[in-house]
């Protein structure tokens, strides 16, 4: 049976988002960062969420709802955010038990590394 990363790609967690969480690799694109942040929500990795948040918009404290059960991530659209860009957007739907979140997130590079800037809810 194939192992799947929480972000939905058919790679093991360790070969996918786990490398970014461990700090042994950096997300090469805005989409990869978005996927790794979703996986961090699934894993409850608050430290990773904070360190991939833009210093300008990063909350001082982040508390995750322990009752939240994320059930899947669907990337709907991306704009820029490749190795050749300094900014990018990712539109996605993140599902959880009882609902889903439809958001367009903005990402920027800070010292070369992709970070989450902010997002707007689409519905
Ligand atoms: Zn992943």
TrEMBL record:
It comes from the Bacteria. It holds the Pfam family YchJ_M-like. Residues 29-119 form the YchJ-like middle NTF2-like domain. It comes from Streptomyces lanatus. InterPro entries: NTF2-like_dom_sf (IPR032710), YchJ-like (IPR023006), YchJ-like_M (IPR048469). This is UPF0225 protein ABT384_29375. Belongs to the UPF0225 family.
